[in-house]
Amino acid sequence: MSSTEKRAQAFSPDDALPSPDQISAANEAHVLDNQGNRVSFSSLLEKSQSNKVPLLLVFTRHFHCGMCKQFNQALAHSSIITDQSRVSVVVVGPGQAAGLDQYKSQVNNPPFQFYADPDLKLYNALGVTRKNLDLGDSNEIGSHHKGSFSQNLLSSVAAMVKSPTLALKGGDIKQLGGEFVWNAQGEPVLAHRMRHTRDHSEVSTLEKAVTSN
């Protein structure tokens, strides 16, 4: 990658903090818990503020995505990200609420809050709108990725076969995700909207964001 390309990437709109309009839209959006109950995003943010901890919001791809599962498993191995006295973690997927419990168990049951956003209201509110199946540059993927693309694809297919009733409830396979961090005062301090299917942030980047603010 040339220095010009690196500078362009450094100022990518995909990493721009949410605008006031986006924050307003996010505060009006609702997600679903594992019982299908509506939960407002604003209430999740207010809860983290009342607990005086940052909020890490993770948007996943579809619930069968092996690469996103690896990312969440990596988060589950972080002593910082899993410390509820230091950060509140909310994971939102584009599938149906019925798949939340299974998804949580597949990523090692971390102490995170899992929600579904099948209508993509919160995704769209924060500008997480890109849809593709692009794998990106294999030299620039996160260190949390393990195994080849073929292995991850087989893992995704296997997950669907094991749970046929949920196979079609995982969400749009092209929908990408991202990560956002709000500090303990409720101010956004980090944003990353995935450009391709292996573009989740480095865990170390998120650890730094939640401990620096």
From TrEMBL:
CDD domains, per database record: PRX_like2 (cd02970)
Listed Gene3D superfamilies: Glutaredoxin
InterPro entries: PXL2A/B/C, Thioredoxin-like_sf
Coiled coil feature spans: none
Entry superkingdom: Eukaryota
Stored PANTHER family: PEROXIREDOXIN-LIKE 2C, PTHR28630
Stated name of the protein: Related to glucose 1-dehydrogenase
Classification of source organism: Eukaryota, Fungi, Dikarya, Basidiomycota, Ustilaginomycotina
